[in-house]
Amino acid sequence: MHRKIFKNANIFDGVHEDVFKDFSFAVDVETGKITEIAQEISPAADDEVIDVNHKFVAPGLINAHTHITSDPNISTGGDKDVVETTVDAIKALRAFLKSGCTYVRQCGARYGIDIPIKRLIHEGKIDNVPHVMASGKAYTMTGGHGDYANGGNVVDSPDEMRKKIREGLKAGADCIKIMASGGVMSPGDFMDEAQLTIDEMKVAVYEAHNKHKIVAAHAEGNPGIRNAIEAGVDSIEHGFYVDDEEIAMMKERGTYIVPTIIAAASVTEKGKETLPKWEHQKMANAMDDAYTNVKKAYQNGVNIALGTDAGTPYNYFDMTTPKELEMMVERIGMSEFEAYRTSYKAAELMKIDDEYGSIEKDKYADFIIIDDNPMEDIKAVQQTDKEVYVSGRKEF
Q1: pTM for the complete prediction?
Q2: Which of 87, 152, 184, 221 could form a disulfide with 140 if both were Cys (CB 3.0 to 4.6 A apart)?
Q3: Sign of CA dihedral 20, 22, 27, 32
Q4: Residue 38 pairs with which residues in a beta bridge?
Q5: How many whole angstroms separate alpha carbon 343 and alpha carbon 376?
Q6: Are 369 and 8 in contact (CB under 8 A)?
Q7: 65: exposed, middle or buried (C-beta count within 10 Å: 0-12, 13-18, 19+)?
């Protein structure tokens, strides 16, 4: 077995708050998995030894809410064709990887092109990108959030939902994204409008869970949040207006929330002069409530998973994931450890935590190397020239 041995590493493994100083770990070059973690590892004759020089090794970030086919410089719509959209999506994936994201979950893709992109990654035809969990197009109602050209699968009954979900799963979707409420970027609705019905969403959940897939629900306001929880979704995306009763329901059922705080902040802080007034105003009205309610969910034990909604206005692929961790500390009140653990929670939500999300034996060697200790200052992850490894291969 040919190995890479990384020595003199200060390891934050994503599981323990303490950093393991001057440790070593070995990676099987063929499988890309970690085979040993110890204070010292004796190399064999054919092992490659890499000196980390006492820098900090931390798990690659897992972003559970991304939109690689969207353009942060364009609000809802845009007229890019499938070829340009595909090229830009690959660039977005490479920006994610360079920022330290080694796994992303798509939550709706124009043209459904994340599915063939993932296939091409597995075939080795696209490199220097993170692992991808593909969703295909999102599912919405006529006139609902995401009902725009090449953007969503439109369904208006449980039977239509069943047919479309089965088609999406047949095409290769790894997860399902449904729209339970109105949203910020859709001009004809508001967050407090319910969209897909409970019965329609229950069908989506049944069909997805029957194929061992997870369901994410866009749900910013009520009654959409409550409807999605009652339908049995795995995660509430955004959840800005989540209330006390819903928090109790989510904790009881194990429902995750993916707050995407950076997406909200990007609209309010950078879009006042450039975005449509209705779009900026909807988010500005919700901002304080979003911080308060997400913080309350966290304090009451709801699972918080890392996600950014990258691709939405001014929410770029190259650095907003590390920035989301900083906002978890500064706006939600998490410790550095708890903020970084939202990445592991993303792995749990995505049901990949048996092989990803932490630096442990028998897991894939997806990690970053940075100069400073992220357990002392989470902004250490924002280092722009960090080293990024996927399955033990240096990508950046």
Answers
A1: 0.95
A2: 152
A3: positive
A4: 24
A5: 17
A6: no
A7: buried
